């Protein structure tokens, strides 16, 4: 994946495989998780921090719809679909948003802090709940998920307007469809009126978080971004460990750097993954950026000639 760009030990060797490129950002080579573990300050709960969870349970039972499974399509349906795309000149960059942004990218965002009863926490969830000491609540999962959704928003805004807007909309649609399902299936909120009330609250919270993160990202100082993280991830805890706050800011900057280096074509095809909290990134040199562009072209330019119409794209390979 393009999110794994130029590892410290084998940068040039990995250039030949675009799907496994690793990027490192920050010359000190210290991961966000390592930074967060440096502090010896005790985790003191703040009684003034509001409890924004809607359910007293800390861990959720894993529902049936989380089991996943591959979906196969008969050959004749594939052929028929390719013919429709070719005859009617369907814009596949718009169609692809559902499967890439509304499926892959959303599940990447929600899985960062997802946790179920009796299931082992993922590496990223360990960072958020164990290393940073955040509460294992539904509301906290939502806040972490929206943080990752916002980071993808930043990249989608730099795509062609209509395509980027569609990718953002599919991501938001999937987010709230999933929340509505979780409210009814996991939280046992059976009243449609009450679910709608919660959905409106979550939507308002998302708008506020996106605006706050945008302001922090656009500012010249990381202090504004840290303030947004403190309010929306650490819930304005007055006893927050500053070292842990720094770790999250570095984590965000690391992801945004990787997203900045990926082309529209690669990002539009889902060739991105979040860098793990245990990893670090260094800025790419001019030569490494050139090699990255060459590797991207070698992977995607043949698509315009040999692949079926459904796999073609007008998105830029260079930007």
TrEMBL record:
Residues 36-66, 299-319 are annotated as: Disordered. Residues 310-319 have a biased composition (Polar residues). Residues 131-274 form the Ubiquinol-cytochrome c chaperone domain. Residues 50-65 have a biased composition (Basic and acidic residues). GO terms for biological process: mitochondrial respiratory chain complex III assembly. One of its GO terms (cellular component) is mitochondrion. It comes from the Eukaryota. Belongs to the CBP3 family. This is Ubiquinol-cytochrome c chaperone domain-containing protein.
């Amino acid at each position: 994946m393009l999110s794994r760009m130029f590892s410290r030990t084998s940068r040039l060797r990995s250039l030949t495989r675009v799907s496994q490129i690793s990027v490192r950002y920050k010359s000190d080579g210290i991961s966000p998780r390592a930074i967060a573990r440096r502090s010896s300050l005790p985790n003191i709960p703040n009684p003034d921090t509001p409890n924004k969870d809607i359910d007293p349970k800390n861990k959720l039972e894993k529902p049936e719809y989380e089991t996943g499974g591959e979906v196969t399509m008969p050959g004749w349906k594939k052929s028929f679909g390719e013919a429709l795309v070719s005859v009617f000149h369907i814009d596949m960059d718009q169609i692809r948003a559902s499967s890439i942004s509304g499926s892959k990218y959303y599940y990447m965002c929600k899985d960062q802090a997802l946790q179920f009863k009796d299931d082992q926490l993922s590496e990223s969830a360990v960072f958020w709940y164990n290393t940073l000491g955040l509460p294992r609540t539904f509301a906290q999962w939502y806040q972490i998920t929206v943080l990752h959704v916002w980071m993808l928003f930043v990249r989608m805004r730099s795509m062609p307007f209509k395509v980027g807007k569609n990718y953002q909309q599919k991501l938001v649609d999937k987010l709230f469809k999933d929340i509505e399902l979780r409210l009814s299936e996991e939280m046992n909120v059976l009243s449609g009126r009450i679910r709608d009330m919660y959905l409106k609250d979550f939507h308002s919270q998302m708008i506020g978080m996106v605006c706050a993160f945008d302001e922090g990202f656009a500012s010249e100082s990381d202090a504004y971004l840290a303030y947004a993280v403190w309010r929306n991830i650490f819930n304005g805890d007055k006893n927050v460990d500053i070292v842990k706050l720094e770790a999250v800011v570095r984590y965000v900057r690391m992801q945004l750097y990787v997203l900045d280096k990926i082309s529209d074509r690669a990002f539009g095809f889902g060739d991105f993954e979040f860098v793990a909290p245990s990893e670090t990134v260094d800025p790419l040199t001019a030569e490494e950026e050139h090699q990255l562009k060459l590797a991207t072209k070698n992977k995607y330019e043949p698509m315009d000639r040999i692949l079926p119409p459904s796999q073609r794209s007008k998105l830029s390979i260079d930007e």
